[in-house]
Amino acid sequence: MRRMRAQRFGQPLLMLLPITLLALVLGLYPIGQGIYLGLTNYRIGGTFGIVPLRFLGLTNFYNILHDSDFTNGVRLICTIGGIVVGFTYTFGYLLALLLNRPFPLRRLFRIVVLMPMAIPPLVGGQVWRYLYDPSIGAVNAILIFLHLESSGEYLPADSTSGALWIAMVGIWLALPFSTLLILAALQSVAHELHEAAALDGAGVFRRFWHVTLPGTRGVLAVIIPLSFAGQLLAFDAYYVLSGEAGTSSFVIPTTYAYLFLTSGLLGRAAAVGDLVLLLILLIFWLSRFIDLRDW
Amino acid sequence: VIRPGSGHDGRVDSRAGQSARRRRAVFRTVDRTILILGIIFFAAFALFPFAIMVSGSFKALDEINRGFPSILPQAPTLNNYKNVLGGNDLVQTSYPLNIRNSLIIAVITVILTMAISLPAALILARHKFWWTTVLSGWVRIAQVVGGIIVIIPLYLILRDLHLVNTFLGVSIAETIPGSAFGIWILTGFIRQIPKDLDDAASIDGAGQWTILRLVIIPLLRPGIVSVILCVFMLSWNDFLNPLILLEDPNLYTITIGLNTYIGQVGLVEWGRLLAVCVLSCIPPILLLAVAERHMVRGLTSGAVKE
Questions:
Q1: Count of other CB atoms within 10 angstroms of residue B140
Q2: Among partner residues B144, B176, B208, which is closest to A229 by beta-carbon distance?
Q3: ipTM of this complex > 0.95?
Q4: Percent of chain B at pLDDT above 90?
Q5: What single-letter DSSP state applies at residue B271?
């Protein structure tokens, strides 16, 4: 009896032990400590001397929220995130519909369109920085070729259209994964439903509207807030795109935090992280009210 | 099968049948045109930066500095690659070494991730008590909350464990999102395996480990392959963790190596930089080309069916 009980509960618990340790020690504890560090003056000096920890309360948050670099950064990344999510899901849907049907060389096409997902985002950012270069970049050459005289400025730094140019990089990087998730959702829509609708005389568009779209809504409802949160935390590509630290052409919260990190102001950097976390929680909370499943 | 346009009794030439057929022909032409345009559009959008990157890596510096008279290099040169792969006078890290380091870290990350995810996924898929609910919640959170939010505390913990500046430390940091992803995918897969199989084995006296080894793993191969590949890419492409956790240039990964090139302010050697970019893209793209079918199938059956 005792042995059986040990087998029923002991073994599952044992098998959950590694993930439990990981979740507690390296998952939840760091999040908690990050929140705490954000309330302190923790810093590491140039010689890794650690300044004694002092509790500051909300001072860091006050300073950050009064820094226009941060507030503009939040506005910028929200704009970028909105554009990226909007485009990746509309175009991702089209691309997924395309990939969901047979045509010659489909496998090659699938590899080609998935390629941006496989490479390091850092490389993606780097290549786009080259494309956007005001004097030697291809995008500039195209703009001149189209007689759209460009300002001779670095495009992502542009105060009006900059967000769009930055978002283009985000779209390029994020489109494959969204497409895969939508494709997966498309393939999970029961085949019988389509056949039944076709027998009832529903055309392609009505079948899409009444069968495909409702069938994939649930998945979209889950992954759209996830993608937006991903944009808020995106670092690699945007960091490269913004240029060298100090002379950066635009600031978003993650690069803003990284600046504090490199200058050793860990408490301040952690506070930025806390604010981003708060923003993410806000988005998940808000996304419950626009639940796509309840249409 | 009753097709519109072909009469039931073989009389195909009725007027209604003809117009329906014509409409179908028009529809098919429009449909095919949209398909082809879509393929061209999406392929061009995905490929354009790659084309520019590859061509730039074969251009000499003065040709790059002349802007864009042509996409194809006019005087192709291998010098960028020679400079990158041979000894390097610009930065203190060598590129072949970076590739080796990235490979080692990726392999450790994959092993750690699988060791943690496989047993956890089995239990989370088959059992339900309060702790599994908590852990499932964490698996979702860990896929979103990461990066800059946790990197500082993570650095401090790993420093206390003397794991800063080691491959293992970076791998452990990458295992957090890796195992969250792995558990997410594998749990979906295991739920599709009939529970009767477990029960049958269990009646024969098999414990959970035996069930995992003899029943689940053999049936889980596509899922395992797709998780291994995705986690390998996740590790290979990771930038923030090695950036913060590695200090010794001899331990730098490809992304950090690339970053040191970028960091050379005022000295943007675009040709070399793009050559480094191309070299960093080759392994993950090869993996994608080999295993793209597994990855799509893995996500399809694992991720979406909650």
A1: 14
A2: B144
A3: no
A4: 31
A5: H
